[in-house]
């Protein structure tokens, strides 16, 4: 990819395209955390990375020979007809996924704040009890 800004080549400033995380690696990372809080932090991080449906084209395998060529052409025509509807539904799903990921993150942060507040109150009550 080449990036040009005001006629100047800024391709070097672009950096590398972030690779999609590997599913097996993601599963391994979810097994590593020692406690529930670390697990939830990792889960929220992965949800933020993977909350969109990929629309990039992919190679569909085809049968060899004339029948395979004909079926590939029919499939290509059908895909061109259905692509708009597919992208529309995919865009809606991406919006829902992003909202759900944000809601889960918000709920997780609120839960962390509640736990910290309750821990603080318990420590305060224990100090008062020990002082009596």
Number of domains: 1
Low-confidence stretches: none
Which oligomeric form is depicted? single chain
- Total number of strands: 2
Class by SSE composition: mainly alpha
- Total number of helical segments? 4
Kindly provide the radius of gyration, computed on alpha-carbon positions and rounded to a whole number of angstroms.
Answer: 25 Å
Distance between the termini: 71 Å
Q: Helix and strand string, N-terminal first?
A: EEHHHH
Overall 3D form: elongated
Strand content: under 5%
Main sheet?
A: 2 strands, antiparallel
Rounded mean pLDDT is: 80
Helix proportion of residues, in percent? over 70%
Question: In order across it, which strands form the biggest sheet?
Answer: 1-2
Describe what you observe in this structure.
This protein has about 130 residues and is mostly helical. It has one domain. The protein is about 70% helix and about 5% strand. It has a two-stranded antiparallel ribbon. A hairpin with a 2-residue loop joins β1 and β2. α2 runs antiparallel to α3. The mean pLDDT is about 80.
Brief rundown of the structure:
71% of the residues lie in helices and 3% in strands. The chain has 132 residues and is mainly alpha-helical.
Short key terms for the protein model shown above:
132 residues; mainly alpha; 4 helices; 71% helix; elongated
Secondary-structure blueprint:
Elements: E1 4-5, E2 8-9, H1 11-14, H2 23-31, H3 36-49, H4 65-131
Antiparallel strand pairs: 1-2
Helix pairs in contact: 2-3, 3-4
């Amino acid at each position: 990819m080449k990036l040009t800004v005001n006629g100047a080549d800024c391709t070097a400033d672009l950096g590398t395209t972030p690779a999609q995380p590997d599913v097996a690696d993601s599963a391994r990372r979810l097994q590593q955390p020692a406690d529930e809080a670390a697990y939830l932090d990792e889960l929220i991080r992965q949800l933020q990375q993977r909350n969109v449906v990929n629309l990039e084209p992919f190679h569909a395998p085809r049968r060899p020979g004339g029948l395979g060529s004909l079926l590939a052409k029919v499939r290509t025509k059908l895909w061109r007809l259905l692509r708009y509807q597919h992208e529309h539904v995919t865009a809606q799903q991406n919006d829902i996924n992003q909202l759900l990921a944000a809601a889960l993150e918000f709920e997780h942060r609120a839960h962390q704040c509640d736990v910290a507040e309750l821990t603080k109150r318990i420590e305060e009550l224990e100090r008062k009890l020990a002082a009596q």
